[in-house]
Amino acid sequence: MAKVIKLFQTLRNHWKKTTVGACLFTWGGNWLYGKHCDNLLRRAACQEAQVFGNQIIPSNMQIKKATVFLNPAACKGKARSLFEKNAAPILHLSGLDVTVVKTDYEGQAKKLLELMENTDMIIIAGGDGTVQEVITGLLRRADEAAFSRIPIGYIPLGKTSTLSHTLYPGCVNQVQCITDATLSILRGETIPLDVLQIKGNKDQPVFAVTGLRWGSFRDAGAKVSKYWYLGPLKIQAAHFFNTLKEWPQKHLASLAYLGPTPRPPEEPEQKTSRPPLYVRLYKRLAHYWAPAPTETPKEMTPEVWEVMQLSAIEFSVTTQNRHLDLKRTEDFMNICIEPDTVSKGDYITRGSLKMQEPHMCPEGSQFLQASRCILELPENSEGSLSIDNEEYEAMPVEVNLLPRKLQFFCDARKKEQMLHSTS
After folding, report:
1. DSSP letter string over 272-340?
2. Deepest in the core among 19, 230, 308, 310, taking most CB within 10 A?
């Protein structure tokens, strides 16, 4: 008992060292517990992947090939380590023939997609920029009609992973996000996503699954990292200093757009067997002696374009992928025109919200639905275009909607949630 009393007296006499030691001990224990929980998640995911790998396949069926496009520079250079620790073991245990392609510089994925051979699935391991490069390279191919049917998996490893909110349920633990996304690829559940084809006046078209932004909020958001020394106030500081150079900030442009188009019914692919020889001979003779009458061409109804001049603080075009409706009857993209009459205080407040939800359309904005639009910008326009969070030079663009263009692997719970919400 005397030793215990002496111990407490020592701790009380050296209370500063005791406090620091207790804090370090608590932090160390919490860190070790977190590592232990991560290992449990990895083990459970590998055990489930082993079930897929133990399945017996017929002798006449080949092993499925998976091509992974990994951006090692994503997540501040941690993407390679995150992939090798959390995703690669699951893919290899599942029995897939995995080929990992690591990109070394920006834009390399677009070139590698041109040389890619046949594969059963494409897996993107990175952030928004990697997704945009891969789908752009895929849809630029001459045989894109065939390659666009290949299902695509997405493993969120980037600083910004907008697409993960559509494909997977929300999670806080990064290891759980990666393992859940990888397992969703193995389970095989897919959903169709819209794609935007964006044509400029210089290069080949660029493709996006999220959207396009042009305006003051985008410009201020790109400068947030310069004020890192202000800590939690860096976002407000970037928008505040952006108001000092010019106010009100007006972005003038001309917009022409077409309205929504009705969605055609989905027709399941049916593989018809070849008819017998006598049936084919009969059809050929019948076609020879009684040729089919020539059909008169149908009159094409002219497209009705709506043209308007806009003066906005920000302009954005987005797909419906963020809030996906699998049972909608029309295909369209959302156009948001935010008025330039916002006050400086509201500008700073709204800027903080837009850092979390870049494509939000606030109250008071003009909201349009279109299947195609043309944005004409004046010469020497300031700012830049943001396409899936990647920066491009501001120029006139034509945006076409490609509805249900690509199939992405998703979590089955997320798909079921979409179906229930739309019903």
Report:
1. PPPPPHHHHHHHHHHHHHSPPPPPPPPPPPPP--EEEEEEEEEEEEE-SSTT--TT-SEE-EEEEEEET
2. 310
